[in-house]
Design a protein that fits this description.
Number of strands: 5
Shape: globular
CATH superfamily: Protein tyrosine phosphatase superfamily
Order of helices and strands: HEEHEHEHHHEHHHHHHHH
Largest sheet: 5 strands, mixed
Strand content: 5-15%
Number of domains: 1
Length: 268
């Protein structure tokens, strides 16, 4: 994998759908040992609520068997997933009292773009710990052969970005490529238009302060896939959790056999 992906690969990676949100295939990336991630096995996305009838056939063709919904219960209630194939298993996880949210952190920061950027970094620092059951569930799903699968949250950027980064680490993809995939959100996710057209909050606001009531500079920070955000999460894994191997084995409880099954399933 070169540092700049070809236009053809990028066109194949980003799925154009009328009601899709940041919907992408993570296939085609090269691992550090020279293997490639299989196409058409793992998709990352934002909310799955707004598909149109024109989207249904292209989505069914994907043959998705499992949908890993990383969102909180209240988000799932407000914007339920509407996948056109009822055979796809919906996987989701219980919330806890300490779950990190943009809204929660924002109460302690100035309501400015700089303050919101600090909030986003704090959220990302919290995600590797808070998302342990969700990331473990995703990895177990992949290891069990329930493929193809979708990993999604609201925007397909923050929680999905961290979960996919861990999955790519398992597969042996280098960090620069992981970052490249993360930053593709800035091209594939036109969140401003998406929110305006659908009155969605993408998990970033609530009825008391809708996204479109916030200033444009704050919305820009919220919508961005900023390299410092993902670096903050990866740094927590490296330092507080003792590195990727320790995080996988002793924090997530994912053993070597599970990792090998994931690699067998997802690498060419």
């Amino acid at each position: 994998m070169t540092s700049v992906e070809s236009a053809a690969a990028r066109d194949r990676r980003v799925l154009t759908l009328e009601g899709g949100c940041n919907f992408r295939d993570i296939g085609g990336y090269t691992t550090m040992d020279g293997r490639k991630v299989k196409w058409g096995q793992v998709y990352r996305a934002g909310v799955l609520t707004y598909f149109t009838p024109a989207d249904h056939e292209p989505l069914k063709v994907l043959g998705v068997r499992a949908i890993c919904d990383l969102r909180r219960e209240e988000e799932r209630g407000r914007e339920p997933g509407r996948w056109p194939d009822p055979a796809a298993a919906a996987l989701y996880w219980a919330d806890d009292e300490d779950m990190p949210t943009v809204r929660g952190f924002a109460r302690q920061r100035p309501q400015t773009a700089a303050g919101m950027r600090d909030v986003m970094i704090e959220v990302y620092k919290a995600l590797p710990t808070w998302m342990v059951p969700r990331i473990r569930g995703l990895l177990e799903c992949a290891a069990s052969g329930k493929l193809p699968l979708i990993v999604h949250c609201a925007a397909g950027k923050d929680r999905t970005g961290v979960a996919i980064a861990v999955l790519m680490k398992v597969l042996g993809v280098d960090e620069s490529t992981i970052m490249q995939d993360y930053l593709l959100t800035n091209e594939a996710g036109n969140f401003e238009e998406f929110v305006r057209a659908r009155q969605s909050d993408l998990g970033l606001a609530d009825a008391h302060r809708p996204l479109m009531s916030m200033s444009p500079d704050i919305r820009k920070v919220l919508y961005a896939a900023d390299p410092d955000y993902l670096r903050a999460a990866l740094q927590v894994i490296a330092t507080e959790h003792g590195g990727t191997d320790n995080y996988l084995e002793n924090v997530l409880g994912v053993d070597r056999q599970t990792i090998e099954r994931i690699r067998d399933a997802l690498l060419e």
